[in-house]
Amino acid sequence: MLEIKNLHARIEEDGTEILNGLNLTVKPGEVAAIMGPNGSGKSTLSYILSGKEDYEVTEGSITYEGEDLLELDVSERAAAGVFLAFQYPVEIPGVPTMTFLKEAMNAQRKERGEDALSTPDFMKRVKAAAADLHIDFNMLKRPVNVGFSGGEKKRAEILQMALLEPKLCVLDETDSGLDIDALKIVADGVNSLRSPDRAMIVITHYQRLLDYIVPDTVHVLSKGQIVRSGDKALALELEEKGYADIIAAAA
Amino acid sequence: MNAHTTKLLTEAETSLIEVAKALPQSQERVAAQEALAANGLPTRRVEAFHYTDLRALLKGEYALAERPSEEDALAIGNRFPRLVSDAAVLHFRSGHYFDRGEVLPDGVTVRAELPKAAKVSTAAASTVALNNALVRDGLTVQVAAGAKVDRTVGIAHAHSAGENTVGATRCAIEVGAGAECSLVDRSVGPDRVSYLSSQIVSLDIAVGSTVNYTLSNEEGDAAKRLARLAVTLGKDATLNLFILNVGGVLVRQEIDFDVTGEGATLNISGVNLVGGDAHVDVTSRITHHVPSTNATETFRNVATGRGQGVFQGQINVRQAAQLTDARMACNSLLLSDECGFSAKPELEIFADDVQCAHGATVTDLEESYLFYLRARGISEPRARQMLIKAFVAEVVEEMEHTDLIEPLEARIEAWMDRHV
Q: Are A49 and A72 in contact (CB under 8 A)?
């Protein structure tokens, strides 16, 4: 599904190198956890996958479903099925959540050559998905993320993910700012979206999220490279020994 | 005219004076021609036109727009469906009044006669002078005291004459004590035709009345529009004024308010959309003459292309006008490198116990919002439109005359489809 080869990338504005020859392969149905210390390049990887223009890829390739992902712009990637659950979802005053959801769903459907959703069909889908995630429907009458708590914002991200039915989900520190109850709701939401033809990249600092979203593979990112890969046991080892030991051993 | 005046007039100035000379003469028309011949159109040296060099911007050799045939008058109207379906609409075509025998709501009477002209005192009064020189037709609309008018009354200006034609109208609206009514003043015209429209409206609102007034400038994209709305607001009266500027390549819209009755409330809001090569100037003056009156003024502006916008907002608080509460805000979005917006707030306060505030902001669209919308599959142009709409919707959706929210939002979206 996704193959990243020798990816080098830097911040466009000041040229700071962030990714340094990153290799990663994710298969359909796989849940891959990316762990690593602060500043290792985790969020940069998520932004580069979603196409944010602040980063410049200087070397290497990203192949998504056999296509060159780097050729697509932000909205084309989304329509092609790449979804980024933001670490910090922005509040957008003046844009009603329902309008936003409908625009997004129909934009992607249009890109795929499908008909726009009728309003009743759209409402039915949103109501069902909101109920699954314990989201009060009244919350969705507000502008996008405006006045949402940290936990509500993360749930709203998963709601969007459920409605947009992406093929590759990138969850950027979805656990940050969540209490245990909210973490469980979000994890249940993510787990219910696991399927044999949908891959997920779960970026996190902590093992805790992986108790709820059990990964198939775990990769340790350090200084812009994957320095070690393993199965879920690797996450437990990291928790026990800390990043420093594992990274030192890998180097 | 002073014998020593030897001002070299532009083609536009000369032709406009010629148009005026060919019309039936009156004292005011003669005075206006003399003022135009002596001063010409204002340049940047005239303070009130500092951001709008009318002399340089108003080009062309103008001729009077002839009265269109009934068929043509109907045809142009049909191209622009009504904003409010059940409104009683009074029709001007290229500056000529057409009485369609519209059934007026109870309490409203209309006389097809030219209201009295405003005085031309200085070169800053060019908008008035030009109208005095060129006006042919006008209306006086009266709303009876105590009338609760149940249907919208509309004044529709549509220009149907050709290139470089000029039409001018003058209307007076008198709202009697304790009345309530909603008025729409709308101007439309064909695109790519460089016509000139001069419009003056005086609106007198008597004691205790509430008026919703909406000015929708949807002129053609090559139109020049010089317009003025002069309002007198009586005791405990309320005016909710909304202005949409979405048309015209050169627009000067003056709004002038004399708040003369205690307890009066003035709510002004508006949206100025300035794209392509358009120059749109809204010049506002509010004079608080008496104690305990309130005014709020909020404009949201969007400029793109090579569009240039201007907002001049003057608030005068006379010495007697203690306890005035006046607030003005002008927020602009600049979407291109070549567009601009000039905002000039002016406060002149002679009373000592008042609250006056003004603020102006200029921003581009927030990149992080754009990225978020695009990351969900929404194309960049559409994402930009959504954010622009959000920016202006805040004032549109607060309109008192709620029937207009949807049709005006449709005009805004049509503008965005062309320019964003």
A: no
On whether any CB of chain A is under 8 Å from the CB of B380, the answer is yes
Q: Which residues contact B223 (CB under 8 A, 6 or more apart)?
A: B159, B189, B193, B194, B195, B196, B197, B247, B248, B249, B250
Indicate yes or no: CB of B380 within 8 angstroms of CB of A73. Answer: yes
Q: B33 in a domain, yes or no?
A: yes
Largest CA distance in chain A: 57
- The 10 Å Cβ neighbour count of residue A146 is 14
Backbone angles phi, psi at B190, to 5 degrees: -75, 150
Specify whether the CB–CB gap between B283 and B252 falls below 8 A. Answer: yes
B74 occurs within a structural domain: yes
| DSSP per position, A49-78 | HHT-TTEEEEEEEEEETTEEGGGS-HHHHH
Q: Positive or negative, the Cα torsion across A240, A242, A248, A250?
A: positive
Domain count of the fold of chain B: 1
B413 touches chain A (CB under 8 A): no
Answer whether residue B272 is part of any domain.
yes
pLDDT at A49 over 50: yes
Whole domain around residue B140: which residue ranges? 11-366
Contacts of A94 in chain B (CB under 8 A): 387, 389-391, 393-394
Please check whether residue A63 touches B, CB under 8 A: no
Cα nearest neighbour of A101 on chain B? B376
Question: What is chain B's mean pLDDT, rounded?
Answer: 95
CA distance A92 to B305: 25
Give domain status of residue B417, yes or no: no
ipTM comes to: 0.95
- Alpha-carbon torsion B366, B367, B371, B377, what sign? positive
Q: How many other CB atoms are there within 10 angstroms of residue B392's CB atom?
A: 26
Sheet of A82-85: strands edge to edge? A82-85, A168-172, A199-204, A31-35, A217-222, A225-230
pLDDT of residue B1: 47
pLDDT tens per residue, range B337-373: 999 999 999 999 999 999 999 999 999 999 999 999 9
**B283-335 pLDDT, tens per residue?**
999 999 999 999 999 999 999 999 999 999 999 999 999 999 999 999 999 99
- A78 touches B at CB < 8 Å: yes
Put simply, whether A95 touches B (Cβ < 8 Å) is: yes
Task: Report whether pLDDT(B404) > 70.
Answer: yes
User: What pTM, to 2 d.p., does this model score?
Assistant: 0.91
A64 shares contact with chain B (CB less than 8 Å): no
Chain A, residues 103-122, CB within 8 A of chain B, namely 103-104, 107-108, 111
Report the distance separating Cα A195 and Cα A31, nearest Å.
10
